[in-house]
Amino acid sequence: MTPSQDVLPTAFAEAVRQDMQIWLERAVIGLNLCPFAKSVHVKGQIHWVVSPARDVPGVRNDLVRELQELQASDPAQRDTTVLVLPLCLADFLDFNDFLAQADAVLTALGLQGELQIASFHPQFQFAGTAADDISNYTNRAPYPTLHLLREASIDRAVEAFPEAETIYEKNMQVLEQLGHAGWNDLGIARHAQDVKPEGGTGGDA
Question: What per-residue confidence (pLDDT) applies to 7?
Answer without folding.
Answer: 80
